[in-house]
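Reviewers of the previous submission asked for a worked example of the structure-prediction workflow described in the proposal, so we include one complete record here. The input consisted solely of the amino acid sequence. No template or homolog information was supplied to the procedure at any stage.
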Amino acid sequence: MNNQFRKRIEEQEEELRAQRELETPEEPKVPKEDGAATAFFRKLFTEGVVSKESATGVLPYLIFLCVLGMVYIANSHMAVRNIRDIDRLNKEVKELSWEYKSLKADLMFKSKQTEVEAKVDTLGLKALIEPPKKIVVSTNEH
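From that input alone, the workflow returned the following structure tokens.
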């Protein structure tokens, strides 16, 4: 039954289209005017200015230009990455320099005689009051 209704609806639509076509006079179809750029490219490719032979002849040059462009883009990416690495390393060098200077200052402070005396006092060692004695070995005794 669905097909019967569908056929009736299609027949009615066709009758309506036919009536509309009879009622409205046909206007002569005027070719649609394209823009200047579209007309230029259509003329360029259809009238043989650029033929298949000339396009294939230029193909190696176009491939070379594409490869050259990719190399240029890769080079710029590498340069940016190198600059970022240099900045990161400069920051690391500054931090290590600050750490070195602070450790050096701590070592200088801890190696003072008064600081060393305070540290070894807990071990029972004391500073000498009299100067050290020199031991002399004569060459005849050996």
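Residues 52-110 form the longest helix (59 residues). We consider this example representative of the routine output the project will generate in years two and three.
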